[in-house]
Amino acid sequence: MQSSAEKVGVLYSGGVDSSVLLAELLALGHLVQPIYVRCGLVWESAELAAAKAFLQAIQVPTLWPLVVLKAAPGPEYVEHWSLTGRNAPDAQTDDAAVFLPHRNALLAGAALRWRQTDVLAFAHLRANPFADATPAFFRSLETRFNRPLAGDSAKAGVKIIQPYLGLSKADVLERGRSLPLHLTFSCLSPRRQQACGACNKCAERSRVITADALCEPLECSH
Predict the structure, then answer these.
(1) If one looks up domain 7-84+103-178 in CATH, what number appears?
(2) pTM of the model
(3) Phi and psi dihedrals of 82, rounded to 5?
């Protein structure tokens, strides 16, 4: 990432990856707009609480207030574990088990419709297994959204960036070592806004994020 003063919208979940990306963009001198998209998923209240705590902890003048948008999942989400909270992928499942249909299209679509920044940043990592997290997928979204603007030189097209596509989780943790990562949150089945300790995301957090990296014991959950 190169430094330049522009306003960047970050699709922000309150998790480690998007938290570190957001902080790095601030450090590079960007104006940063955190964007959270609610879709009615069971973990959203806990994520939002963590997101607000992290943003408060790193508050600087170039960090804009969190914007919360809404997107409606399609019929494929009827009785889906992400809405019902039942049978969420547990610690024994691989990462592909947490697939959410059209997830990135929902997130990007909400941000594009809101359209208050010309750059949108996602914190996808190298190991992301999903087809809707690829550069090709986002280039197609850019093309579709920008096509009506092609004849209007006064309106800039939107650009979607994925600065962490070449990084592993360990790389991101190292880059965020000075940040209050204990305030971040990743859990598929939170209880009273606390991590369940048994889902796929909790297992990943326990496996790759040490207490030292989080600054506080993992049991604090966020």
Answers:
(1) 3.40.50.620
(2) 0.88
(3) -70, -20
> pLDDT tens across 118-159, in order?
899 999 999 888 888 999 999 998 888 888 766 555 456 889
Separation CA 10–CA 25 (nearest Å): 9
Instruction: Yes or no: say if 31 and 9 are a contact pair by the CB < 8 Å rule.
Output: no
- pLDDT mean across residues, the chain: 88
Q: Residue 221 has what pLDDT?
A: 35
- For the chain, the 3-state helix, strand and coil shares in percent, each to the nearest 5, are 40, 15, 45
Q: For tokens 């960090």, name the residue.
A: 63
State percent of the chain over pLDDT 70: 88
Residue range 80-89: mean pLDDT, rounded:
94
Cα separation, 190 vs 187, whole angstroms: 6
Average of per-residue pLDDT across 19-30: 97
User: Residue 109: how many CB atoms within 10 A of its CB?
Assistant: 16
- Distance between CA atoms of 171 and 144, rounded to whole angstroms? 33
Residue 203, token pair as written in the block: 């297992």
Indicate the pairing of strand 119-121 with strand 67-70.
Answer: unpaired
Helices (H), the chain: 16-27, 44-57, 81-84, 103-114, 135-146, 169-175, 200-208, 211-214
Q: Which residues of 11-50 are buried (b: 16+ CB within 10 A; e: fewer)?
A: bbbbbbbbbbbbbbbbebebbbbbbbbebebbbbebbbbb
Domain boundaries, the chain: 7-84+103-178
